[in-house]
Amino acid sequence: MPSFSDIANRTGSLFGAIALLGALSAGAARAEDFERTVPVEPGGTLRIELSTGSIDVETHDLSEVEIDARTSGWARRAMRFELEVDDDEVRLIGSRSSWLPGLGPGRVEVTARIPELFSVDLHTSGGHIDVQEVTGQVEAHTSGGDIELNQIVGGIEVETSGGSIKAGEIRGDLAAKTSGGSIHVSEVNGNVEVETSGGPIRVRDVDGNVEAQTSGGAISVRFTGAPAGDLETSGGSIEVQFPPSEGVDLEAETSGGRVAIDKEFTISGSVEPSEVEAELNGGGAELSLETSGGNIRVRAR
């Protein structure tokens, strides 16, 4: 049987370990967040590379880039940030410098404020990306989160491996791809190219060519003017809307449903219940619609 002194020594060691862990947790909670401000000229580029964490970008009226990186949990001590400035480029790198088990879940949130006329190139391995009111090129890639874009003037290329994509009020070409979510796009003046492996696609009020492909959902596209593009799904219906005064060369085929065209359009060509190859309103640009598992509807808006 252990003696009283042995028990006291072991108890003291246990309390010491608990006290040490508490000190580490308290130190982590008090660790300073990363805040930097860099003077810049409009027209530059902000690049952010994170090993984990979310990214939010917004604009302001100042000629400077403001970085505000907030961390919690293990990330208080395990994340390391570096800011580099090279001519017209500002680059923020956030990476794990170590693992500290026992400190609970961690969170990394980066907010950047940039001049309105500025481009962004954003990469994170685990978090959402949100970009608002930017005039410039936008590139965004995440391995584990949603992407949302609003009021962008410029070309856009975004991709996520595990989330949905939303974009609205876009003036420029848009390319968006996700491996596991829906895609919703609205008010686009430019060409749209979207692809998802696991969700529906909805494009509203687009003035441009639309290329859309999904392996697991419906596709719905509403054109403001003449329609053009290629829409394909392996597991859902397709619906297209455009003004009844516009013409199009239509090819529509379904393996698991019917093709229906509103009576507002004049039709010239081959029309079968599940396949149509015809000119609508005298023809125009090419529009191809194909589904393996649903109906196709061409509607007048």
Q: What does this molecule look like?
A:
This protein is mainly β. The chain has helices at 4-30, 75-78, and strands at 34-39, 45-50, 54-60, 64-72, 79-86, 89-96, 107-115, 119-124, 129-135, 138-142, 147-153, 156-160, 165-171, 174-178, 183-189, 192-196, 201-207, 210-214, 219-223, 229-233, 238-242, 248-254, 259-261, 267-271, 275-280, 286-291, 296-300. Residues 1-31 have low confidence and may be disordered. The longest helix is centred in the first third of the chain and has 27 residues, at 4-30. The relative contact order is 0.09. The termini are far apart. Among the domains are: 1-30; 32-151, no CATH class. It is elongated. 10% of the residues lie in helices and 55% in strands. It has a 14-stranded mixed β-sheet. A 13-stranded mixed β-sheet has the order 1-4-7-3-9-11-13-15-17-19-21-27-23, with no helix packed on it.
